[in-house]
Amino acid sequence: MTLWSSSDPSGASVTLTAPEVQPGHTLLSSSSGYSVLEFIGEGCFGRVARCRNLATQETVAVKILKKDTDYLQDTEREVAMMEVISVLNPDHSNMVKFFEQFEHLGQTCLAFEMLDECLYQMMLERYWIPLSLNEILTIAEQLLVALDALKGLGVLHTDIKPDNVMCVNQLDQPFRVKLIDFGEAMTSSEVQTGMDLQPAGYRSPEIALGLPFTEAIDVWGVGCIMAFLYLAENLFPVDCEYQMMKCMVEVLGQPEDHMLRAGIHTKYFFIEEVAAHHPTWRLMTPCEFTDVNNIQAEERHSLIDLPGSLDDLVNIQIHPEEEAAEIEHRMAFVDLLKRLLHVDGDQRISPQHALQHSFITKWHLTEPFDSRPPTTTSVCSVGASGDNTSATLIFDGSNEPSILSPDGDAVTHSNIDWAGWSSEGEILPGSSEEDQDAWLSEGEISPFSNEEYSVSWFSEGELPSCSNEKEPDALSSDGANPPELTAAMVRLKEL
Q1: Family, per the entry (predicted)?
Q2: Which domains does the chain have, with CATH numbers?
Q3: Is 159 annotated as catalytic?
Q4: Mean pLDDT across the chain, nearest whole number?
């Protein structure tokens, strides 16, 4: 990399070039030095090195970015977004820790916590053996917690995929994961209809069709990841946009006409035909797609028989000796998947409600099989043991659960004071503000316990954003954003 050049009166030029960073070199920041141990990744952005922080002796990951103006603004955006989410506790909200940005001999470096491997690499090392439902549950819960925390900040990740979900330490903490790579993240105020976001195969219908969108696009990504872990195969093709949409229509059904009429990219995939009373839409054939868009529609290749509908997932690899409870757990999994992959983003389940779904809470595994209610209506008891204030949380096919109070009256979720309650029906030990602060600082919460969901995501425990007892956008007690968050948001808007 050229640092500077000069010329003398004789016309000879002198150019000084920074040496390429090698293992054994030390990267210097204002706060510490980072000894480069080895390089563990490389991409168009630069390289990633495993380093030792000489001040703390921690092993960290350092992105060493190319000195390329094309990536400069992307880097600034990623750093600004990391500052926005830095108000969250990264361990409780399941997001990668960002330590600092610094310059080393003209190269921008970003220091993050060292993680293990991404979900794609994990599946590769497992020889593509699907995960069990309990393993998928563990990962899904952590991702939903992360999305709920981001929603509280008004942030969309926009790039949820197996490559951006990292195992923390698969040997010592199996299936403990964190969300990484906020280079494509944005605030809700930056959202514009028609933006080109999300990778093929993990792209939501509203992005593919060019519809208005919200943080629900990230929920879609989590649903796709859950299907990927269950099938050991992408549910929707990642190498052809046409096949992605075709599979989406076959498995989930065609988007409703009102969505297709409103989409600014609809005619990329669909043809409008005149009917007796109103126009209707149909998916193009591969030949029509190629003719209209001048893009070849690739054939889909898969090593497994992919489902014709999500309901078919219940019977995949089923064994006769499986107990009824295991089959019912599969049914709960498929039910949640349907809600996460709802074609209409406005009707897609929210992270908060998904965390209360029976697949996550496992309510159906806590009673004898014969005494449990039918799977068409999911019921979760909430209340203190032995207390007469207990109620029942009901999932009846709608995205908003209703509550059956002790006297038998159904009330909406928003009218219930959830503070201090867990999905197991126990009062949380951190239900008071003092207990919550101590809980966060002393680290007594299980890293992916559902109880953690009722506690604030913020680093010091004093700024609840997504706890059940407050609205998601209530970032502080007086309704104002914390100063560090406001400053980070301002910087992001200036980029």
Answers
A1: Belongs to the protein kinase superfamily.
A2: 2-114 (3.30.200.20), 119-352 (1.10.510.10)
A3: yes
A4: 78
